[in-house]
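I am still getting used to backbone structure tokens and would like to learn alongside you. Please make up or recall a protein chain and show it to me in full. Would you write everything just below, so we can both look at the same thing?
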Amino acid sequence: MARTKPAFLPTGRDLSPVGLAITRTVVNRIVQNVSRDPERYLESHLVGKRRKKAYNIDIDAENTFEQKLHTQQGGKFASIRFYGEESLRDENLDLTGQSGVVALVDAVDGTDLVARGLWNWCCASLFYAPQNEPGRRILAAFVGMPTGHIYYAIDSDEYAYVKYRDELPRRLRGASGIKTIKDASICFYGQKPPNMLAVAKLPFFSNCADVYSHHKKLKTEIDLRLYNFGGIPMMCKLVDPPVLHVPGIDAVFDVEGQKPHDVVAGAFIAKRAGACLIDLMGNNIDLDQLETALMKPANKETEMRYILAATSELAEALRQALLQALDSPR
């Protein structure tokens, strides 16, 4: 009786060239398709069992990612279970006990931005082995930007990297080291009214205004900026400022809650590059917690409320500014 050949179980190092190549292909395809035929690719449909709205660009990008993944190197990665945006809308999706490797892919994270001609979207993917021991379940994460930059991190490397077009990968520059609100560029997801309102109900904006006014009166330099774009692209920019010692992104937070698959790829890369990740109670969010949340990547019960910051001092200052009136400007 012939023995069945065991399925190939890729490591992060195996996935690194594959993820980079596929992400590059998908991002280029998105940019080219929207530029070449925007009317066709920005047409929307109701898809799947839940009849959710999706653009042709979403469907094409997701299908391209899956097809490229399963045909790479003669089908070497065909056993990887692929979960795209439609699957990741299913709150009942539970990866607990699944064998092998799964790919959680949001091929166009920020389709509304693509449709509006804005460049803050990305192609995000995460490769995950649910049955691995804790701390070894996340194998690799890739985030491709329309600029041509691909950010990534793998399980066996303590650092995170970026690859730009045909250049060799380089290690991320890391977070800024900013410790105070007055010097920080702060991002949050506030594009939809409920998300903006969730922040507006907190004392955060008035606290930031007090900080700004205080230092303006003292005629001290103030670099405080607020941006209502959050999510994975800003997480990556937090740990890779364009120029060192020039203001970049220093913090990203969410108080309304995001599904784990909308957070973990960026958080994994940012933590590898030295950023601090805490919850709204001030507790560190470690790798084990990220992995646990991913077992139910689209479940409302595992939604993540977090502060990702350049330093622990800035993370705590932001936490306090979000949740309580500040005793003194920071």
